[in-house]
Amino acid sequence: MNKAGHPLHLKSDKQPLVLLGIIGLILFLIFQVFPSTASISSEVKTPEMITKEAAISAAERFAQEHLQYSRTSSTDKPLVTYQSRSDVYGYLSKENLLREYNKKFESKYPYDVFRVRLVQADGVALNVDVHMQNASVAGFSYDLPDSSYEGALLQKGDVRNQMLRLIEGEMSLTEKMSLAEPWLEREGYSLSNLKQITKEGEPGLIYQDPEAKIGSSQLQLKFSFEDNQLRSYEPVFSVPKDHTAYVEKQTLNATLLTLLGYGLFTLILGILAIVYSVKTKAHTSFKRGIFLAVFLFVIQMLNTYNLIPVFQAEGMSDAGIMGMMIFYAVYSLVFSALLYFSLVGGSGLWRKEDGLNPWPRASEAGYGSYVLESMKLGYIWACILLGAQSLIFIGLNFTLHTWSTTDASQSPYNMLYPWLFPLMAWLAGISEEAVYRLFGIKMVKKIVRNTFVASLITSTIWALGHTLYPIYPVISRPIELIIIGLMFSYIFLRYGYLTSVFAHVVFNSILMGFSLMMMNDPFNLGMGIFYIILPAIVGYVIYKFNKSRVAKTI
Q1: Following DSSP, what letter does each residue of 437-470 receive, concatenated?
Q2: Which residues pair with 114 in a beta bridge?
């Protein structure tokens, strides 16, 4: 890290770093990219993915042939979102049954589907689940206007059952069976070969196929009803109760760790950043962080806007979506303020107490060359970090038997413009390096009087903000990111804020870029590559615009 008032320079022996970077990149490609050895962080995707247009055609054909559906108008394009039965996938993943399931059952009972939402002339929404590879229909459900069915599912025990029975219309078991039998016959099932699970007086109707079993999971044919009519049909494999209880407990723990370990301490850091921005005002500038704070806000709002299909798939009204946008606008303003004061206060603290310059100004001589060198080091370190992450995943798999499941809420398939998704790499890199490295390390060091302990504490706070990812046990992700966070801390302390930002942005851009490239269309493939090289473009453009300032020894 440079001293304040001294010429800008970054001295580093790149040769050993480049070698480590090459090794890291190879490990990443082997363990996280190549499908045959994909790690726990990668979703399994096949190249025969159908298009959303093909899913619409399959859903409309099914609905017209079997559910008397007619399109409201030629201009109403159905909504298509990616949905996943994450509980089923998670159980199969945990028990190492995915390969067997894919071979025996996945073609007819997929855990990943395109859900096509068709709006009928009477305002009723029909959701048709379409297999993402072979375009077969894997189930359907109706969303009736002003329905309280989804609300009833949130209840528990007798209250839940009583509400569902009222919503059904107090149907008898015989009436339910008469509505379900035509669908069972259509699917090729014989009632004599099925076991009826539901009893008289219980909501819904469930049949079980004793012949279709994997592990402790069995195929269940589930029907639900509303206003004396069939509401949904879903063939799905059951999830053992002990697995569901385990996931629920882990999710509760993850929520507490996020709120208390991450949220509370990040809020404290934010308050302290405001305080020390004022206390170090003679050593910092209140103008410099404005652009990055505004940039962060814009990215946050673009990401929220990009997730509108997710809100629509949940049946949210236009007013509800607007309310969600307003909520995220307020949240983004708070988060942008946190970034702003972390930049101002962090820069001031290092300059005032240590005479160091972790975040140089563009007006300083050699700034262009400094940024260019920071970018180069960022790419090298990003490759090293990816290799380290791959080794950490292997270690977690052998020690904690870490497993993961799917999460449709943040999938690029559910975004208006998937190509905007990797912009989040810049949000994370700029903001997290400012809060937890630039400001956090120095602030905590004032309390603990030790740089490593301060780095460990801030890395832990940062890591706990990632516990709600569907990776189990939930302690797995914090362990991974504490190690990664300590590496980011070293990069920051050794080279400064800009290098740590470039390393973080490149690291995330590669991960997100590959996610985009796996969508299997030329445009997103090109955009994925573009985002991976974007940090290099940004670094070079800044260098060119500041080249006229005389550079010192580098």
Answers
A1: IIIHHHHHHHHH--HHHHHHHHHHHHHHTTTTSS
A2: 82, 130
Distance CA 346, CA 341 (A): 8
Contact between 27 and 387 (Cβ < 8 Å): yes
Reading the block at residue 145, the tokens are 């206007």
pLDDT digits (tens, 9 = 90+) for 77-97: 899 999 999 999 999 999 999
Which two structure tokens, joined as six digits, stand for 303? 């990401």
3-state secondary structure of 96: coil
- Taking residue 395's Cβ as centre, other Cβ atoms within 10 Å add up to 14
Render the burial of 506-542: b for 16+ CB within 10 Å, e for the rest. Answer: bbbbbbbbbbbbbbeeeebeebbeebbebbbeebeeb
The residue among 85, 76, 80 whose CA lies nearest residue 106 is 85
Query: What share of the chain in percent tops pLDDT 70?
Result: 95
Q: How far apart are CA 33 and CA 41, in angstroms?
A: 10
Strand ranges, E, within 282-391: 356-357
Computed over its alpha carbons, how large is the radius of gyration of the chain? 27
Between 497-517 and 476-495, two packed helices, what is the crossing angle to 10 degrees?
A: 140
Helix (H, G, I), strand (E, B) or coil at 40: coil
Q: What is the pTM of this model?
A: 0.91
What is the C-alpha separation between 295 and 288, in angstroms, rounded? 12
Q: Would you call 94 helix, strand, or coil by DSSP?
A: helix
Residue showing tokens 């839940």 = 160
